[in-house]
Amino acid sequence: MTAAKSTAHSIVEASSRVKMFAAAIVILYAVTAIAPLLWIVATAFKSQSDAIAYPPKAVFQPTLEGYVDLFTVRTRQTPDFIASLPPATTWYDKLVRKHDMVIAGPSKVVPRFINSLVVGFGSTFLAVLLGTLSAYAFSRFRIPLADDLLFFILSTRMMPPVAVAIPIYLMYRQLNLTDTWTGMILLYTAVNVSLAVWLLKGFIDEIPREYEEAALVDGYTRLQALRKVVLPQAVTGIAATAIFCLIFSWNEYAFAVLLTSGDAQTMPPFIPFIIGEGGQDWPAVAAATTLFVIPIVLFTILLRRHLLRGITFGAVRK
Amino acid sequence: MTAIIHPDSSVDRVAAQTSFRVAKPVRGLSDRAIAWLFVTPTIALLLAINIFPLIWMIRLSFTSLNLSMSYLPMRFVGLDNYIDILTDEDVWYRLQATARFVISTVALQVFIGFGLALLINRQFRSHSFWTTIILLPMMLSPAVVGNFWTLLLQPQIGPFNYVVGLFTGIAPSSFSMTGEVALAPWTIVLVDTWMWAPYVMLICLAGLRSIPDYIYEAAEVDRASHWRQFWSITVPMVMPFLMLAVLFRAIENFKMFDMVNLLTSGGPGSTTELVSITLKRAAFEKWRTGYSSALAIILFVTVFGAANIYVKTLNRVKQR
Into how many domains does chain B fold? Predict the structure, then answer.
């Protein structure tokens, strides 16, 4: 075996020239693929005129105008009026006044961000709770028609969201759930619970039954064994599942745009409609996108090891 | 307690029975009660949020309900909505556009994803870092992606046209990726591939890593060429994984709404109007609830049909 590995033709270890060729192409692809994202992050630090310059500017004077625009509502004033005001006290006031504008108040971005957090965490908590219980039951007990039930649970996720939204819209109108946190949390929980059951069943299946059986012999009840033996072992799986649910709720657009309009609107339907004078305020849109994407980038790095499981409903484990 | 010992019961069976007896809780709820207690909330939620509305929608699909004219009494029209949809040429065009989108994205993503997986599987130094970078696009919100690509693809101010101009000499402002009938269908394919090729790559990579080295070593001993090894070992062994990726991508893209809605919103004209966008327009702009319910049911049936065929294919490939 060791002899085979040392020969130049071993398949296990590619030759260094092949490796360099592979690395060159993969890195070229990665750099090209990440460039659009970097461009958006850069646009967030451009001034309005740099953002729409022709030819597109890769080198520019960075400014926080985009972020200020994102968080405030501004009105245009005459230079005389601005001169008559007491001098600007904060850096963002100064930045805005340079363009003959005055800050009139905060924008809606913070409430939208809070909506995203509430709906995201609320639905994740519920989905993981229901998912853990069901997954445990499917993993440990003989349930009649278990395979059919599991397929039914997965199939609910395959439905086209726009099609699901039609009856949900009608139902929510009757129940006064349109544009509410409760409505959105329930809906996202229903979508996420299918993923949670499938992923968590995989994780719990991997915990040897012997541990629980030993606990049962020692006089624990099922529930005690679940709480003290199974759950501590499933913590990583539960955390990974929670992050997947959170990412789904955070990113979801179709239901959000069709079923919310104001009070409960989350970030994805809000970001494209950050308007400045004369169309989309690109630096502000880019700033919102950047802030919105940062948690996802962190989560992706955290989830790296479980990513494959998450995107295949636990079908592929590695 | 009397135990009836069957003459031919093996030791194993006795052992199995014993463990079953011991595993039965002395106090607390019975296993059966717990099983139902744990599964019921999930099933109840799915029935309330998915199945009940679905049944309601089936009923609505046989009516003339129009929410913008709700003063009209709701009439039952039988199969009229279904007949309207299936004989409407426009709907067939939308389905064709969707089919073309699904086929081109899946083909491109399989090509790029499998290619990248083969290269990454060479395990060069820092491959893990670059893999994570490549995976980022698929984790983003499709809506946000559709939105920021509209900036990147602007004819005047967008970097995309500028870069294309640099390489080909075509004036950057002379074409619009989202505004031209000939280009827009390819634009949505391009952005979707940018986003989802990493998905196929990740699954193929798992497939490649599941192939044990000794198979290649045996092939090497038999002096099989690399080309031969690729087609008779790599491809068949990765195939079940690839089919899994194709299944998920095809179903997801058949339902495609968010990214395309923000990138082109179906335009120019209706060149990129995929069937989900048609459905959204019928249901939430024209408020033809009866008609759109029927269309939604047709989509459900198609998705489930496709899913079933693919799952069967998948099993057949796995058995080989």
Answer: 1
ipTM of the complex: 0.87
Note whether A303 and A243 are within 8 A (CB).
yes
As given in the structure block, the two tokens for residue B127 are 């491959």
Smallest Cβ–Cβ distance between B42 and the set A9, A134, A272 belongs to: A134
What gap in Å lies between CA B120 and CA B149, rounded to an integer?
27
Say if B292 falls within a structural domain. Answer: yes
**A26 within a domain of the structure (yes/no):** no
> Structure tokens of A11?
């398949």
Any idea what the CATH number is for the domain that residue A282 is in? 1.10.3720.10
- Asked, for residue A5, whether it belongs to a domain, the answer is no
Domain with A99, as residue range(s), is 48-107
Q: Count of CB atoms within 10 A of residue A164's CB?
A: 24
**How many whole angstroms separate alpha carbon B102 and alpha carbon B255?**
10
Contact A308 B136 (CB under 8 A): no
β partners of residue A73: A105
Inter-chain CB proximity B194 and A36 less than 8 Å: yes
Secondary structure letter of residue A219 according to DSSP: T
- Convert the pLDDT of each residue in B166-213 to its tens digit: 898 888 888 888 888 999 999 999 999 999 999 999 999 988 988 888
CA distance A286 to A43: 6
With residues binned 3-state (H G I as helix, E B as strand, rest as coil), the percentages for chain A, rounded to 5, are 70, 5, 25
pLDDT at B8: 42
pTM over 0.90, yes/no: no
Which candidate in B65, B148, B234, B241 is best for mutational testing of the A interface (most A CBs within 10 A)?
Answer: B148
DSSP string, A104-151: EEE-SHHHHHHHHHHHHHHHHHHHHHHHHHHHHHHHHS--TTHHHHHH
